[in-house]
Write a structure and sequence with these properties.
Layout lengths: L2 H18 L3 H12 L3 H28 L10 H16 L5 H15 L4 H24 L1
Helix pairs in contact: 1-2, 1-3, 1-4, 2-3, 3-4, 3-6, 4-5, 4-6, 5-6
């Protein structure tokens, strides 16, 4: 399965949902209809979107807790949604190691954000991972 493709779908859905104030599930349906990804890709995207929808306040709190100088609503829309995606994977996808979630988010930030997005996303996610999944990070090296 191409999880990177699923992550890009999730980012697109989150962006559309926030900018256009669309329901995430409806937006996901639209994006899947337009892009026609493999079933496994759309299923993983739906899984992540479901976690973000169900645990959005907890995800935003985890981000806010470590970004003392940046209120979440002041972050760039793309960066904020990349963070939400990665934190959802770190907290609610047991099969995604924290380093994988961080590395994938950095790649998305470099592709879709501005020149400082990769560093910003890396810093926030590293702090979230240390706080919530520190033992796993130690094992990963």
């Amino acid at each position: 399965m191409k999880r990177r493709e699923a992550r890009e779908l999730v980012l697109r859905v989150l962006y559309q949902s926030e900018i256009g104030e669309f329901d995430m599930q409806a937006s996901l349906g639209q994006v899947v209809a337009e892009t026609r990804p493999a079933e496994q890709v759309s299923a993983y995207a739906a899984f992540v979107i479901g976690n973000i929808k169900e645990h959005g306040k907890e995800i935003d709190a985890a981000i806010s807790d470590v970004s003392k100088h940046w209120r979440i609503e002041r972050m760039a829309v793309t960066d904020r949604n990349i963070l939400r995606l990665a934190v959802a994977e770190m907290l609610f996808s047991a099969d995604v190691p924290p380093r994988v979630a961080i590395d994938e988010a950095i790649e998305l930030a470099k592709k879709y954000g501005d020149e400082s997005s990769g560093r910003f996303v890396n810093g926030i996610l590293d702090a979230v991972a240390r706080k919530h999944r520190g033992a796993e990070l130690s094992r990963e090296g």
